[in-house]
DNA sequence: GCGACAG
DNA sequence: ATCTTGTCGC
């Protein structure tokens, strides 16, 4: 996928942490929470990040899947020098460059991107999945394994049970029981996906595991401590 | 001021 | 995220 419309993910950023937070607030205003993806979805892209050389290299994996069969069509791994430490709330400034590198390796743009981490379930409503969506213009949503901000009730024990994740009086996502006896997933919209749809889509992509297929397959690629070929 | 804090 | 094998529970 040629990045013809590639926009700078950090426009005008001065490199400071304060500047990063200010930029997040600005970019968050561009997030669209109305469903704006093609129906029916044809392709999905799952993304995840891992590290090599004690963190010196950031490795982003992407897997393109057929949205109907959930079968993988192609996958790639991008490696870029790590430029930022992990700072809670600023994850996208550390991992987005690698994710965009992986996206650029796809032969075609996906109809929707599924990213490991939060969408709008973030202090300033711009978790990495939302940031990715605004930067690329692609519909996106986040699937996290734990909460960054907000509170929620423990969802019921059945597959599909869910409870709203609340923060400052508004719903920012869901705690979703994707599999019995497993900790709930934290699902939130990224860009061009609504709150309700985000949870429904993730349920649709489950195949017997805690993680939905797009992120499960990308995870497997991103965290292999071997075959750097 | 003290904790909490995606990956 | 990463360092790391077997082990307990369903």
Q: Would you kindly provide a written description of the structure presented here, covering whatever features stand out?
A:
24% of the residues lie in helices and 26% in strands. The protein is an alpha+beta fold and 229 residues long. The chain has a single domain (31-222), classed as archaeoglobus fulgidus dsm 4304 fold (2-Layer Sandwich). The chain has an 8-stranded mixed beta sheet with strand order 3-2-1-4-5-8-7-6, sandwiched between helices. β2 and β3 (72-81) form a beta hairpin. It is globular and about 45 Å long. The mean pLDDT is 95. The structure holds 2 DNA strands.
Please, how many helices?
5
CATH architecture: 2-Layer Sandwich
- CATH H-level superfamily: archaeoglobus fulgidus dsm 4304 superfamily
The first-to-last residue Cα distance is 22 Å
Structural features:
archaeoglobus fulgidus dsm 4304 fold, 26% strand, DNA-binding, 24% helix, alpha+beta, 229 residues, nuclease, 5 helices, globular, 8 strands, Endonuclease V, single chain, eight-stranded mixed β-sheet
């Amino acid at each position: 996928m040629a990045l013809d419309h590639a926009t700078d993910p950090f426009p005008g950023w001065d490199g400071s942490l304060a500047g990063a937070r200010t930029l997040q607030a600005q970019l968050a205003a561009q997030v669209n929470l109305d469903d704006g993806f093609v129906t029916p979805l044809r392709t999905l892209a799952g993304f995840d990040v891992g590290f090599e050389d004690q963190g010196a290299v950031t490795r982003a994996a992407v897997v393109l899947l057929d949205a109907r069969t959930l079968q993988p069509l192609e996958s790639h791994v991008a490696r870029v020098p790590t430029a930022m430490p992990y700072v809670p709330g600023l994850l996208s400034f550390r991992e987005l460059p690698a994710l965009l590198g992986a996206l650029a390796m796809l032969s075609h743009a996906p109809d929707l991107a599924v990213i490991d981490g939060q969408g709008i379930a973030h202090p300033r409503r711009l978790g990495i999945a939302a940031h990715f969506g605004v930067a690329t213009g692609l519909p996106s949503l986040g699937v996290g394994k734990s909460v960054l901000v907000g509170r929620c009730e423990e969802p019921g024990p059945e597959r599909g049970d869910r409870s709203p994740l609340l923060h400052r009086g508004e719903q920012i996502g869901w705690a979703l029981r994707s599999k019995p006896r497993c900790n709930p997933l934290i699902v939130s919209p990224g860009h061009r996906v609504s709150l309700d749809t985000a949870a429904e889509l993730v349920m649709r992509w489950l195949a017997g595991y805690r993680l939905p297929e797009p992120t499960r397959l990308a995870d497997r690629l991103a965290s292999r401590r071997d075959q750097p070929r």
